[in-house]
Amino acid sequence: MPDDTAARWSGVNHLALVTNDMDETVRFYHGVLQMPLVATISAGPMRHYFFRIGPQSTVAFFEWVGTEVGEFEKPAGIPFTFPAQFDHVSFTLPDEAALNALQSRLEEHDVEVTRVVDHGFVHSVYFHDNNGIALEASWWVRDPTAAVDASFFGDADPVPAVRELMESGELSWLPTTHLATDVVADPV
Q1: Cα–Cα distance between 152 and 130 in angstroms, integer?
Q2: pTM for the complete prediction?
Q3: In which order are the strands placed within the sheet that holds 134-140?
Q4: How do strand 46-54 and strand 57-63 relate by DSSP bridges?
Q5: Residue 50 class from Cβ within 10 Å (0-12 exposed, 13-18 middle, 19+ buried)?
Q6: Which CATH architecture has domain 12-71+85-168?
């Protein structure tokens, strides 16, 4: 039976990861992987940049400058025997009413949840699942994945790669990477 009160999930809003080098991250995700940089936010010393991976879907990075961020080197194609860490995952809801309804539902089920946080172009609530995984539910007030719009670039002091994109539309260099091990063949 349909449940009119069910959350109306519509995808992954963003997967939040961590970097200590946002400039190189922009060069890799925008330049190498061709995931367009669609939004930047800065709050004090922290940067938060979003790369489009599909309609209303992004991968986002927090930059922790001057912090040792452990490298995640999973050998290609090899199952990992221990869990990996990331910052959080945010799921998309279609509108403010759905976000408020989810917040109420979480409260009704004794799940600690934040108030609605206004990030400008996206509104969100934050909570944890039963495994302690940090989750966010978000509604795009203005969707940065729909069209390139300078108003989504709120970092007043962007990394050099963003300045290059703003000035010429191109990146002057792109990073290279390597596999974590010598495994180059399918292990199966």
Answers
A1: 34
A2: 0.73
A3: 37-43, 46-54, 57-63, 12-19, 88-92, 134-140, 122-128, 117-118
A4: antiparallel
A5: buried
A6: Roll (3.10)
How many CB atoms are closer than 10 A to CB 98? 18
Dig out the tokens for 89 from the structure.
Answer: 């995952």
In which residue are the tokens 């990477």 written? 177
pLDDT tens, 33-76?
788 999 999 877 889 999 998 899 999 888 877 766 555 544 44
* pLDDT beneath 70: ranges in the chain: 1-5, 67-86, 130-131, 180-188
Residue 10: what residue type? S
- C-alpha distances (whole Å) from 23 to each of 31, 69, 175 are 11, 15, 10
- The answer for residues whose C-beta is within 8 angstroms of residue 163's C-beta and 6 or more apart is none
Rounded to whole angstroms, the Cα distance separating 68 from 112 reads: 30
State the alpha helices, DSSP H only, in the chain: 22-26, 96-108, 160-168
CA 101 to each of CA 124, 159, 179: distance values in angstroms, whole numbers, following the listed order: 12, 38, 44
Instruction: Give me the pLDDT at residue 159, please.
Output: 95
- The residues spanned by each domain of the chain are 12-71+85-168
CA distances from 187 to 57, 73, 75, 77, 184 (A): 31, 16, 10, 7, 8
